[in-house]
Design goal:
It is a single chain. The protein is about 45% helix and about 15% strand. The chain has about 350 residues and is of the alpha/beta class. Helix 4 links the parallel strand 5 and strand 6. The chain is globular and about 55 Å long. It starts with a strand and ends with a helix.
């Protein structure tokens, strides 16, 4: 397989599962964590390695090292691997997803932005989602009429904060997630609830038209629920680990034990909360966005640009959602082609940075 984003949380878990199943890792792609990359090279012996920056090539302990986005796309097209695991963060992951699908490869997708921005032009038949929420929905689906699909949210770093203090929240504050540790951007997205809105959009593209929603489950043990038309509801329980969905993406006949079972007696109780627009203002556009899912290209670009401004301390935390909502109202357009997706992305980023 080809692994994009090997040194992130999902990449590390993917390599652990690949080792368990004895899978060959042909290509490793990573960003700036060269120290961890070199350890992965020593253990997994990839044929090719790609890093994000040209200046880092000399630091990599491998004879075939390339750099940059074009190199990723070229290697995907030339590779004999049938599977691409895309764990890249952000819009950067879209071109590799498209290249993999054009080359007839299967894609194990953790890059949310591919479907959020370009879902209208992606054949999801070749995609296996490895987000725990979409995996949960896939796991629960049966040949029964569905009323609603529901995914859960942790609530992010600020779920228990005084709402009045949120505008003064720092970048360091956003990273104090109550349930897990992942990368900087996804943890910010969790705090704003953008991450969950993206996952609802992904679900819409993966499973088709229907009713979708999300609720907060504070222990992150239930990842998805389905309301069936007969009045019954099923829930997918599992400990928060990416290894379970990754295992099924790598081996659909998977029957090995991956996780310990959830012990309900030890848990004792679960707590559910509504996602409210006072704490998570971006939620006010959720229903309209699900009716117009192709406009995800606008939301994704606005979010990435706003996060950059927040990291640069040019705007406050709550201004991220304001920037997204303003851009969504201004750009009432849907792309008609992949080229449109890239054009809209550039235009929206420019607007957010300059407004």
């Amino acid at each position: 397989m080809i692994l994009l984003g090997s040194t992130g949380s999902i990449g590390v878990n993917t390599l652990a599962v690949a080792k368990k199943f004895g899978m060959n890792v042909e290509v490793l792609v990573c960003g700036k964590n060269i120290e961890l990359l070199n350890k992965q090279i020593e253990e997994h012996h990839p044929s090719i390695v790609i890093v994000s920056d040209e200046e880092d090539r000399a630091k990599v302990n491998h004879t075939r090292v390339y750099a940059g986005e074009d190199a990723i796309v070229a290697v995907i097209k030339d590779s004999s691997s049938e599977l691409v695991v895309n764990a890249l963060v952000g819009f950067l992951g879209l071109r590799p997803t498209l290249a993999a699908l054009e080359s007839g490869k299967r894609v194990a997708l953790a890059n949310k932005e591919s479907l959020v921005a370009c879902g209208a032009f992606i054949d999801t038949a070749k995609i296996q989602p490895i987000d725990s929420e979409h995996f949960g929905l896939w796991y629960l689906l049966q040949e029964r009429a569905v009323s609603k699909m529901i995914i859960t949210a942790s609530g992010g770093a600020f779920r228990d904060w005084d709402i009045k203090k949120l505008q003064n929240a720092s970048l360091a504050d956003t990273q104090k997630h109550p349930n897990w540790s992942m990368g900087q951007k996804i943890t910010i997205d969790s705090a704003t609830m953008v991450n969950k809105m993206f996952e609802l959009l992904e679900a819409r593209w993966l499973f088709g038209e229907g009713e979708y929603d999300a609720i907060i489950e504070t222990k992150s043990l239930i990842h998805a629920l389905i309301d069936f038309k007969d009045g019954s509801t099923t829930a997918h329980f599992a400990h928060a680990s990416m290894q379970l969905p990754i295992a099924y993406a790598l081996n659909k006949k998977m029957d090995a034990n991956i996780l310990a079972h959830v012990d309900l007696l030890k848990i004792g109780s679960l707590e559910f909360r509504e996602i409210t627009t006072d704490r998570y203002p971006v939620w006010q556009i959720k229903n309209e966005l699900l009716k117009n899912p192709a406009r995800g290209a606008v939301i994704n670009a606005a979010n990435e640009a706003a996060i950059e401004l927040f990291i640069e301390k040019k705007i406050g935390f709550m201004d991220i959602s304001k920037k997204i909502i303003t851009a969504y109202k201004k750009f009432q357009i849907s792309p008609n082609s992949v080229a449109d997706v890239f054009a809209i992305d550039k235009e929206v980023r420019r607007f957010v940075k300059n407004s």
